[in-house]
Amino acid sequence: MKLYTRTGDAGTTGLFGGDRVSKCHQRLVAYGTLDELNSALGVLALHLAAELAAHAPLQLIQRDLFALGAVLAAPASKAGQVERRLTHPTWPVQAMEADIDRLTALTGPMTHFVLPGGCPGSAHGHWCRTVCRRAEREVVALSAAEPVPAEVIVYLNRLSDWLFALSRAANAQAGVEDVKWLP
Fold first, then answer.
1. What is the dihedral of CA 86, 91, 93, 96, to 10 degrees?
2. Does residue 87 have a pLDDT over 60?
3. The domain that contains 52 carries what CATH number?
4. Over 80: is that where the pLDDT of 109 sits?
5. 20 DSSP β-pair partners
6. What gap in Å lies between CA 67 and CA 63, rounded to an integer?
């Protein structure tokens, strides 16, 4: 199988099921941002200490994001064929919430707004969080025009919370204070 097909040379791409749409279609913007987030998470993993126990969840999240991208790549007429992948994500929202609580316990209480930065793991975690929030906004924009399973938005919303907690925990583990926003 060749890496190039030439079918997208005119600025269109194929969705699941064969429909062709513009490469700037909101559906592509949404799942393209998930792809960007997935890549950013790969970089984040390079900067996290093993003690945070985040590498295994990151791999599960990357698999889930790939599956969510497949769901978003399916037009409404084909959605039922791929939505079943959402019913059992490899790292469910409830597990994410439990890990948010674990990570939060590693840090002190929040007394200020936190700016991205600190140690490399924290800075990269905040970068991933902002990409995740953008992905969430893109999916919400898509949902205004076409049906999107609510679970996709919930997953991304909770994931951004997890990334925030992970960023703070990375600083705590490295013995670096969060960068406080002081107006």
1. -160
2. no
3. 1.20.1200.10
4. yes
5. 14
6. 6
